[in-house]
Amino acid sequence: MSSVKITSSFWGRYRDLVRREMIPYQWQVLNDIAGITIEKERDDANIPSEKSHAIENFKVAAGRVQGTHYGWTFQDSDVYKWLEAVAYSLREKMDPELEKNALAVIDLIEAAQEPDGYLDTYFSILGIEYRYQSLAGSHELYCMGHFIEAAVAYYTTTGNEKVLNIAKKCADNIDENFGPEEGKIHGYDGHEEIEIGLLRLYHITGEDRYLNLAKYFLTERGKHPDFFREQARKYKGPNALNWVANAPNTYFQNHAPISEQKTAEGHAVRVVYLCTALADLAATTGDEEIIKICRTLWDNIVDCRMFITGGIGSTVNGEAFTLDYDLPNDTMYCETCAAIGLMFFARQMLRIDPNGEYADVMERALYNCALAGMALDGKHFFYVNPLEVNPLKSKKDPAKSHVKPVRPSWLGCACCPPNLARMIASLDDFVYTINDNTILVNQYMDSDSLLDVGDGVVLIKQTTGFPWDEQAGLYVSNNSGVDVKIGVRIPSWSENFRIRVGGNLVEIDSKKGYHYIEVAPGSSVVIGVNFDMSVTRNYANPHVSEDVGRVAVSRGPLIYCLEGVDNGDDLNCLILPLNAHFEYRFDNNLLNGVGLLTTTGKRVHARSKSSLYTKERPSLKDVKLTFIPYYAWANRGENEMQVWIRE
């Protein structure tokens, strides 16, 4: 199997943080021994935030302890994502203590599984006879999808047959209960995820029924838009969030068949999970109709509904997309899970089409919105990633209660922290895409890789100080027995991009954002890449009303922001002049080492402080402006932050 070993100092710190801090910390949280305060992600009395109870739920379901279920219907998924993160961490570096905990969890999951393969602690504890009857909010298939993903990851890493057999038994139960056949449930889950899990299980087992079931769930969605409401009217069981069935059909992406959906609608995470599975199915089967659907939804998200940080989701109401160009900076949602889901979608699209735009968006979401979801200590997390924050407004404006000025230790809805852990731990899977005899270099990271191509392997060694430095070197040795093409990505943010092959400058021949270099069997080549990391001013489409007259600053893949700790209060009073010249400086002692941008700007001062409105024009005074990378904000206490600044 192909292997990618990331040696980057930037990502090495984060991956060490996941292994040494995040995974053990989350283990303590899941076992209710962390001794922390769990915050609600917004003002909502219905959010369970007393404890996690996730491991305890499994113990109750397994009959090991007495008790009842606590938490969301999707609480099981926190454990599954933790297990998946462990699998990837063990792939990078074996850890006996971590493996011991993982094996204990696998044993516990097996004990909690019903004899027929059904796996969900909520209904096993509160009423197994009500299973599959309230799919709008029960998250049964969602949770089982996450377990299947974790099982495949753990089996692939360790060869553990037990966890794979639990997953197959689980998937077989779903297959027995859902499908087009008479007597089966003609429906799907309220939250897409099982489709991703089934496709991953198909890839590892080759069992067509898993592929067919995933396709059924994807293509059945939207054919019967009243499905959830009809189930809810008949449902008599425990409160499985069945009230969610009253949400608009767009919330579930079942307002129309997938083939008729032209825009990204509803809950943002659901959308990108749906799209990830669709793109995987399309790449696997070559289905042109599904490929067209994927491209249509991708274009709508990226061209009309994505924030400059790679965040998606414009409103707290339904954590959802709204309409084209509705991208508010201080009331948006930009959930960490949604940015991660967008990366998953991009990764699958690269299997369909070698287009650098997918890798560009993957990079944007990774280095900005997703990375901002975790504090530098690995123990505090954002659910929502705003582009503008005033702490007092977050505290006193109910419409902004979801916009946190600092990261909480844990969240009542804790989907984001373990999702971020599994993404960072699996980052080596995002560096390259292999299509036949072509290798796409999607991400620039120090790494040593052996990639399966033809009847052998291609060795690629990357050396770079990315994302700070402007150079990368790739040593490629082709031991595959076939001619191999190396697709070197030309980032969209680099105006002047240069490539040297064997030390000689070559003319760039861009094909959808990649320059291809052929490497013959038995030969090797040294490729040198130079990026243009000039500071860039970015402007939003004028239809984005909130950003008219404003500018966002970036350098390389990183979006920058102003923070109050560097620039004082009332960031809304700062102006970046058109002729401002930036200076770049790397500070090893700040925020674990960051590149800073400084320049001279203006601050608006009122001439009269006694009047709310006046005829007097405010005065302008010179001030020093300091920008930090967006991902690093909120690590120095509670203060204001702003991405889009007046120009």
TrEMBL record:
<dbReference type="InterPro" id="IPR012878">
    <property type="entry name" value="Beta-AFase-like_GH127_cat"/>
</dbReference>
<dbReference type="InterPro" id="IPR049046">
    <property type="entry name" value="Beta-AFase-like_GH127_middle"/>
</dbReference>
<dbReference type="InterPro" id="IPR049174">
    <property type="entry name" value="Beta-AFase-like"/>
</dbReference>
<protein>
    <recommendedName>
        <fullName>Glycoside hydrolase family 127 protein</fullName>
    </recommendedName>
</protein>
<dbReference type="GO" id="GO:0005975">
    <property type="term" value="P:carbohydrate metabolic process"/>
</dbReference>
<dbReference type="Pfam" id="PF20736">
    <property type="entry name" value="Glyco_hydro127M"/>
</dbReference>
<dbReference type="InterPro" id="IPR049049">
    <property type="entry name" value="Beta-AFase-like_GH127_C"/>
</dbReference>
<dbReference type="Pfam" id="PF20737">
    <property type="entry name" value="Glyco_hydro127C"/>
</dbReference>
<feature type="domain" description="Non-reducing end beta-L-arabinofuranosidase-like GH127 catalytic">
    <location>
        <begin position="3"/>
        <end position="428"/>
    </location>
</feature>
<dbReference type="InterPro" id="IPR008928">
    <property type="entry name" value="6-hairpin_glycosidase_sf"/>
</dbReference>
<dbReference type="Pfam" id="PF07944">
    <property type="entry name" value="Beta-AFase-like_GH127_cat"/>
</dbReference>
<feature type="domain" description="Non-reducing end beta-L-arabinofuranosidase-like GH127 middle">
    <location>
        <begin position="438"/>
        <end position="533"/>
    </location>
</feature>
<feature type="domain" description="Non-reducing end beta-L-arabinofuranosidase-like GH127 C-terminal">
    <location>
        <begin position="535"/>
        <end position="646"/>
    </location>
</feature>
